[in-house]
Amino acid sequence: MKTLIHTDKELIESIIRQSDVCFVGMADTDGTPYVLPMNFGYKDGVIYLHSAQDGRSISILERNPKVCITFSIDHALVFQHPEVACSYRMRSKSVIAWGKVAYEEVFDKKVEALDIIMKQYSDKTFRYSDPAVRNVKIWTVDIDEVSCKEFGAPHKKSY
């Protein structure tokens, strides 16, 4: 089994779209890491997230807006030999994206962002109350850098 590095944009976007949650990593100015599992939306190289207006993550991001966001799918335990512990590993595909959080404050743009997030989870069309839109914090992350790996890929046999 081996690790493959992928650069194909369609595969990267497919992994993102197949993910149920993403894990958003950030670091406070003293280097303390903080990682949150979050619902998300994705469109045209931008990751959309939402949260309350304040809290630990917002406090951290106000001081350091850099984030690392991980998506992971197709998890399965695999092994090369059932009696050799070191041959066991998890097969998976993952995308790691880096960028900086910005906040969307324009009402109509917040609604668009919520629609993008909801599209990740449902084909339905939703309406949002004005207070809900005003009170939600919308995060946007333009992807500056991305990596994609497939872990536990089988070796190709040559005959």
Automatic annotation (TrEMBL):
Gene3D superfamilies: Electron Transport, Fmn-binding Protein, Chain A (2.30.110.10). Pfam families: Pyridox_ox_2. It comes from the Bacteria. Transmembrane segments: none annotated. This is Pyridoxamine 5'-phosphate oxidase family protein. The lineage of its organism: Bacteria, Pseudomonadati, Bacteroidota, Bacteroidia, Bacteroidales.
